[in-house]
Amino acid sequence: MAAVEVHNGYKYYGQLNDPNKKIILNYINMKVMAGSIYGLLGASGCGKTTLLSCIVGQRQLNDGKIKVLGQIPGSPGSGIPGPRIGFMPQEIALVEEMTVEETLYYFGRIYGLKERCLKERYNVLLELLDLPSSTQLIKFCSGGQQRRVSFACALVHDPELLILDEPTVGLDPILREKIWTFLIEKTRNSKVAVVITTHYVEEARQANCVGLMRNGILLAEDSPKNLMLRFETNTIEDAFLCLCQKQGVSEEVERKLSKRSSFVLAAEKEDIRDASFQEQDVNKSSAKREKLFYTTQSRMKALMIKNLVQLVRQPSGMVFLFLFPIIQLTCFYLAIGNNPMDLKIGIVNAEVPDSSTCFNDSLTTTILYSDRCHLNNISCRYIQELKPDLGKKIYFDTTDEALYAAKKTNIVGFIYFSSNFSKSMQDILEFGRLAEEQSFLSSELAVRIDMSDQQIAFFVERRLREAYKNFVENLMQDCGLPKSLANLPIRFEKPIFGSYNDEYRKYIAPGVVMTMVFFLATLITTAVFITERSDGVWDRTLIAGISTSEMLIAHIMLQSVIMILQCLEIVVYISLVFNTQNNGNNFTVIALLVLTGFSGMLFGLLISVYCKTHTMANFVATGAFYPMIMLCGLLWPLEGMPELLRRVALAFPFTIPTVSVRNILEKGWSIQNSQVYNGFIIMLLWISALFCCCVVGLRRKM
Ligand SMILES: Nc1ncnc2c1ncn2[C@@H]1O[C@H](COP(=O)(O)OP(=O)(O)OP(=O)(O)O)[C@@H](O)[C@H]1O
């Protein structure tokens, strides 16, 4: 009975209509009998791995048929991909953070072995393949040890068909011999079939049948003995050489012809596909549907343990997950929103040239006599109103000196008092609108500030205004005049929400936390999925019979737990350490943060579906990060944006949700308020859209 039958197998990489598409399998016919070893030989790049991937159901032929153990790979209930086959890929494709024992248990559980049976199998393989110590991590095993563990994983469930892609590469001759002896024993005493590819052509002498492959064509398929007899050689290698030379020219012609014809054929067959091929498609899609809902406890357990181990055993991963938010928040709260300190402000006082006399109270006080308020050196009173939090006062003799210092950025700016500052003030007090024009000019403070640093300039300006208000109020009081004379005719009453002292930090904190949660989840997901894919663990797990949906569910479950813990950590940390007040419900805030993390995770998944490498994924994540940060109203109010851009920005995942969190924290609004639940709606819409894109992307890639 044939364990594997390939009939007119045709496969190309690239688009159907692309004239340069790469034909890898060129109408191959192959038969592997049960209870035999089939050695698939050929130069690097001739298509061996591609053929094996079609046999195990990882890829599909573009034309032709494959039957494995009497079933079409991928058909429902066929067990292919799945437990009926044992597959050892060319690369190691094991989780580096797992121990040897955990690795074998991982595959055993996927194949549905009971724990007791798994233990027995493990002990047998441990001895048979001389595996390293159970507790040794895969990443600390030598190349040869890793290969043996990988081989053991393919054998752990005692499959009916073993597909081994170069299992002996890099192994010492003794171990290679040991593996061949094992395979010969195995096939001799059972119906197990083995398909093995190898670069060491001569070791295939021990196979029952060898297939010699070149440029996607199977040149010959026979027993090693017959092949050597046919070409009168002593080695398979020489027989292979003869075959290649003999077929050389004619094969090229044939190949060109078949390339053209196969192209036309494939194009035709795209429309009128073979009935059984269509059947494959129908079966495949219903199998996918079934798989989507079918998960066994054992498989989920295997996946969850693997994900957890991967996470916990990577110290950088744990730091990233739980310490990184703390570091980020600490930096944010310590660095953003505090008043500038250690500034230097220049003072040029033409009224009191000797600054030390300014601190003689008798010269600076206001003297009230005969209903007249006599003002003396009151510029000093203003200078005293400038509190130390504004910065250090540096005295200059002339404005030129002060300007020079400001241009050299030694001071942030300077204030100039005219020589008759007090007298002018007194004139205005006494004569009001009848005072001389010159008095109005001389009573002004002339201020020059370095406006190139706006935040500092605004801070200085605010402090100078506050000091002036206090100064004039005190002056009015001393002169027996109403204080309110000093005020502008505008009164800011009790704020509706927040306070006049609210810091910028309070405004941007919700956005900062949300973007952090979102992008942390994005980065973790891309890192996990791309690493799994590039290590081959993803494909190997799929070939072991796990569906993409199961992998996703396992990841989402673990990631959700992590996100909830992360959000709790963030909320507790900022409220306890930085005294951030929440006037609303903590649960609502955490729920919205978790949803943010969830959409970040799906965004990461989407990136990893379409990006093959970490570099590419990082480019996309960073490229998305900056526009989102800049357009979400975190740094500058949306009202400052052009109308069209504002509308676009409103649809971004953080824009409205950030406002929602701010409304909960500052205004104490509940989820029943539209300004809060809108954030949830936007987030849920993003989650749904990203999820659909991920599913479509994953299905396309399958
Ligand atoms: N996903 C892919 N997209 C495009 N081309 C591919 C893809 N995978 C493989 N190829 C190309 O197909 C050809 C056959 O590759 P394959 O891995 O099947 O060869 P192989 O015989 O197994 O080689 P080796 O012995 O070196 O593993 C190679 O030229 C390879 O570059």
From TrEMBL:
- Membrane topology recorded in Swiss-Prot or TrEMBL: Multi-pass membrane protein
Protein name, UniProt field: Putative abc transporter g family member 20-like isoform x2
Q: Which SMART domains match?
A: AAA
Molecular function terms from GO: ABC-type transporter activity; ATP binding; ATP hydrolysis activity
Q: Which residues cross the membrane?
A: 317-336, 507-531, 551-578, 590-610, 616-636, 648-665, 677-698
Q: Keywords, A to Z?
A: ATP-binding, Membrane, Nucleotide-binding, Transmembrane, Transmembrane helix
- Any one of the GO CC terms: membrane
Q: Which Pfam families match?
A: ABC2_membrane_3, ABC_tran
Q: Where does the record place the ABC transporter domain?
A: 4-240
SUPFAM superfamilies tied to this protein? P-loop containing nucleoside triphosphate hydrolases
Q: Where in the cell is it found?
A: Membrane
Matching entries from CDD domains are given as: ABC_DR_subfamily_A (cd03230)
